[in-house]
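Sorry to interrupt, but I need a hand with the structure work. Could you write out one complete protein record for me, on any chain you like? Just paste the record in under my message, thanks.

. . .
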Amino acid sequence: MPTLTIDNQPVTVAEGTTIIQAAERLGLVIPHFCYHEALGAAGSCRLCAVRIEKGPLKGIQMACMIPAQDGMVVTTLDPEAVEFRAHVAEWAMTDHPHDCPVCDEGGECQLQEMTIAAGHGTRRFRGLKRTYPNQDLGPFIVQEMNRCIQCYRCVRTYRDYCGGTDYGTFGSRNRVAYGRVTAGRLASPFSGNIIDLCPTGVLTDKTFRFKCRSWDLQEAPSVCPHCSLGCNTLPGARYRELLRVKARVNRAVNGFFICDRGRFGHGYQNHPQRLREPHVDGESVSWNDALAAVHERISQTTEHHGHGTVAFLGSRRATLEANLLLGQWAAATGCTRTVYECHPEFDRIARTVAARLGDQRRSPGDIQRSDFILLIGAEPLAEAPVLALAIRQAKRNGARIVILDPRPPQLPCAFEHLPLTPEQLQLALEQLATKKFKGWTRDESTTLRNLGKDLTAAQNPVIIGAGALLGAAGIERLFDLVDASSPAARPCGVLVPLAGPNSYAAGLLSNGGPDFDDLLDAILNGMVKTLVCLETDPFEDYPQHGRAQSALAQLESLIVLDALPTQTTRHADIVLPTTVPVESDGCYINHEGRLQAFAKVLDPGLSVAVTGGGDHPPRIFEQSAPGNLPRPAWAILAEILKLPTETAALRQQLARTDNRFAALTQIHRAAEGEIVTAIGIPPRPQDDDGAVESSVPGSLQLWPIDTFGGADIFSTYSVHLDPLRDEPYILLADEDAKQRGLTDGAGAVLTSELGHLKVRVRCTATIPAGIAFLPHLLRGATAGFVPGGGALSCTLKSVEGEA
């Protein structure tokens, strides 16, 4: 490890570290534009000039391009280097419009900071400036090309790091510009990252445009609630409105980047239909009356029917604190039926992961260092988008990527694809583990046999699988394969995206108890009369909507704590409005068992934009903000249980009650998180029903699947993501479409046990014949087709006159 001296301060760094990185270790910031830790060096801006006084290369050199050498002596304060940086900054500012007062980047602009740091503060150029037309880049990003300093960061982020292909560099010399060949929305699901990486105001957030100055924002470290990865974010709010979300650095989880769903899917916080007041039997009441009604309903149920007739349903999106308190409330009422996930298959998957993950857990940061990645039945862009970014970085580092999946893969990198049906995926998992291959064609058998050998020979392999196609039985087989591929000297890693941001905690808390199917049976048999639901929607999330509706209709009382206007809150007898994640402190446990805390960003309430009708400032002044009645779910439950409602004291009490979560007492919001090492209890074995069979001639297996724009409830309530949501379509093989007289883009009627649905046809050659896929949108015509519930039998018929 070389030791060098920078500005008379010695520092020892790893081999390959550049001078600019070594300076950062000492707390020295060398002015720069093109360099970024995640992107590396390009050497294009020439701003990071330093003088090397001793070393293989002497004189003025670019700090981002020169590796540190043992014995090297560097100075950033040399007069010639200082002058050089000042000239470079002046050149970069020559054509800049100096429109900082109207630029959304003002106050957090690296161009402002580095220009001053480089020593340039007086404009001398009086000639004509170079100008460009701006390009429409879609609903998320605004371009102001005249502010550009040609650092290439946007292209390196979009194309090199994120794998986008529709944004690039045009022109030459001092006429370089960046954009698309034609105007339009950027296609990459990670396009918003160029906003964070642009050091100037060229690329800014269109959803945030002209709404607030950066120094007026209320900000706090947070965790993204849109999937199970737990990406770290920095939300910003003003006047009771969540205005933007930026990526926050966590090298183990998301690095420097987040997906567009996490960045722009924040409209749920001020959704116009959001629950704002407690309700009892459809009437708005005070909090005291609502809590008294809850106590009265539960007391009446236990007195008339017994303690076991009250059940509690937790949630994959409720915080760890709230789910823990729900369990304590259930115990205090003598309840023996507490469930933490209303989707039985996702519940069993979470329990399996919590029971079997162990030391083979892998984070997205670990994925980047893998040399062999096998994806089986997983669609990262829909189920855990930033995982796709991690896989791309592994590919850039030389990893081999192999996908076994019936769907056309959508990774932002090159890969090998073997399209297998869902039933074949189960067989492949089993036989890759046993090394006995039967029931395949010769080519398929050879491919799988070689795949098993390569998996064993890899130095750092990872297997990724998801539950929507594999189901709980498939996830069990996946862990068997991981175990079979893990010699003592070299364990094989595993990563299983789960259904929600706190699914892992739900799996741990289940403790071998009943699942939601058991709970519905108890309701239908008259053994449960009152159900308490914590931030969950069994009417929509349970795959068999009819069964859930029939059972829940028999309840005497349905008590719901939630922030969103779901089907369950519409059917509830008592509604207690809760805050959304940015409005309270809390913790989630992500897919790998990483406990992460997030902080309150803003208080709940209707935004000034709503209360003022667009006018500002408001004309009516009150002591309390309108719409401020929602409370954190954990605070409501703590009050019911007469426990502390202050975060730190409550976490200490919870940690004492359940030592599996002892890290609650020391969790820090800005840290990378704490791994929960407790082992869960696996689910009860289930019958594997196998393939769907139908006597209807010409029927297909229909598999509902998640999509990037509608895979979680929070993004569903965000209007900003509407451009990402397509009209209903069905994806099927070219062969199946031809047999039914269908063509790509044609209209068709899909008929299944759930009724009739008009869809558009999309054809592909990569899907095995006999199966079809229907993207699921929670608030659309496909809401009843819930992923993870297995396949349905369906038929397709052409709609005359539509194409």
User: Anything to note?
Assistant: The chain has a mean pLDDT of 94.
